[in-house]
Structures are given as C-alpha cells and as structure tokens.
Amino acid sequence: MSGAFPYMGPGDFALVEDTRRPGHPIVAAACFWRHRWSFAGIEFGVGRPENVATDPAYRNRGLVRAIFAMHHARSAAEGHLMQAITGIPYFYRQFGYEYVLDLGGYRITYLPLIPNKNEGEEEPYTVRLATLDDLPMIQELYDRGRSNSLVWHEAPAAYWRHRIEFWHDPAISDQDPQTVPLNTRYLTIVHQGYGPCGFIGLAAKRWGSDLEIYHLEVTSQVDLATALPPLLRLLRGVGETTPNVR
User: Fold this and answer.
1) Which of 17, 38, 44, 243 would bridge 24 by S-S if both were Cys, CB 3.0 to 4.6 A apart?
2) How remote is the C-alpha of 241 from its chain's centroid?
C-alpha cells in the first residue's frame, strides 16, 4: 500500500466484499502485478495475478473467476501479451492457464557432504546483508545470466532496491522473520582480499529442514569450484539460525 513495491500500487488490489454482512468483510482478493519479460531479447509486458485467496466459507461461488476476469481485462487494456501465474498445480487451468515454462529446478546438498575446513585454516569469505552500494554488482551479475534462457525476467533496478531496502527497515529487522511477508533476502559475498564478489538470494525462513537458495552468482575473479566449499559452510551456519515455520 505504500507504493514502494515495483510491480504494483495501492490501486492494484481486487477485492470481493460481502455487503450483506455487517462491516462488509472481504471474502476474496488478489493482487495484480506488472512484469517486463523478454523473448530472445525482445521485451514485452506480462500481467501476473498474485496472492489469490478466498475465505473457505465462500469457495465454489465463482469469486476468483470474477477477480481473474478483472485482472485479465486490465492486463489486456495495458497491452500485455500474456498473463502468467505460479501456484497450486492444475488449479489455474480452469481460468485459462496452461503449463508453458519450467518453474526453476533444484539440487540438494546434504549437510554431511559439506567438507569441513582444515584445522587452522581461515575462511576466505564472509556474507552480509546486501546494501544499495552492492546494487550495480548484483544487477550486473543477474543480467549476465540472460544468455542461459530464451525467456528472461527484466528485473528493474527498483526491484533490487526494494528487496535490499526492505531488510534494512528497522520496522522489519525487529520483527520475527516468521511474520515478515517477504521471504527472499539477499546477501553479499565478501572475499577477505578483494571485497564484494557476488551475491546469494535465499529464504528468510525454512519450511521443514531445507534452506532454499534461489540465486548464487559470483564475479569473474572467483573460481566457483574452489569457492563452493567455504560458501556452503557459511550457508550451513545461516541455515542453522534461520527460523523454521513448520
């Protein structure tokens, strides 16, 4: 509602009220996000419904269908070439969505497989919360990955700025991470000799035993194969202090 989020503003909430009940409670809602994607370097607009929810007592009444019709009409009016959504498997097919793109992938590293450092050896890297000074490096490293995908999310500087500033807000940093709505936080990798040299995007809370790592990018001066063991040790420590919400 503050207007700080780069993909939507205060006027992009669709709500359904029950006007028959006192106080007109909200019984269904969804947000409308605007993305810029590219296909083989050609940019286009994408509409994205997000945070879709219905009061269980009001399900199966077509409320989400009506909200999606509003979203799709707004998206078309703004010239978007498509709408995209992530969420419950198969559920959104009833609203015209089909599977088109893989939603990422993953590898699992089990903690016993992470090598311990040698006795007396100093760790070459540390990690800290990313700051706005790191933004040019982060955006450059992110954009470097576009050659790996025909379809690319053109994340603007405002996106990275929002993600970085969010975790430095005292109103957020003093909260229990389990209650914070934004899950992804960004850490800067710092080498003892040459300073900031990469970033890690990871979950601020764990669902179960896993710590999810969404991004890990390093500059060209870092040999990733050599850097991975100490970075995994750092992430193991981060995971041990990351709250579990299950």
Assistant:
1) 17
2) 20
Split at pLDDT 50, 70, 90, the class of 4 is: confident
Which CATH number is 10-95 given?
A: 3.40.630.30
Strands 13-17 and 26-39: antiparallel
Residue bearing tokens 């939507």: 8
Q: Count other Cβ atoms within 10 Å, centred on residue 154.
A: 14
CATH architecture for residues 111-240 = 3-Layer(aba) Sandwich (3.40)
Three-state SS at 92: helix
Burial of 139 (0-12, 13-18, 19+ CB in 10 A): middle
The predicted pLDDT at position 207 comes to 83
Interval 21-56: pLDDT, tens: 999 999 999 999 999 999 999 999 999 999 999 999
Within the chain, all domains assigned CATH 3.40.630.30 are found at 10-95, 111-240
Given a contact cutoff of 8 angstroms between Cβ atoms, the answer to whether 205 and 242 are in contact is yes
pTM of the predicted model as reported, rounded to 2 decimal places: 0.88
Q: Using DSSP, how many helices (H) and how many strands (E) does the chain show?
A: 5, 9
- 135-144 vs 157-166: helix crossing angle, rounded to 10: 130
CB 214 within 8 A of CB 201: yes
Contact 4, 162 (CB under 8 A): yes
Angle at 105 between CA 100 and CA 110, to 5 degrees: 165
Say how many CA atoms lie within 13 Å of 148 toward its Cβ.
7
Which stretch of DSSP H or E encloses residue 234?
helix 224-240
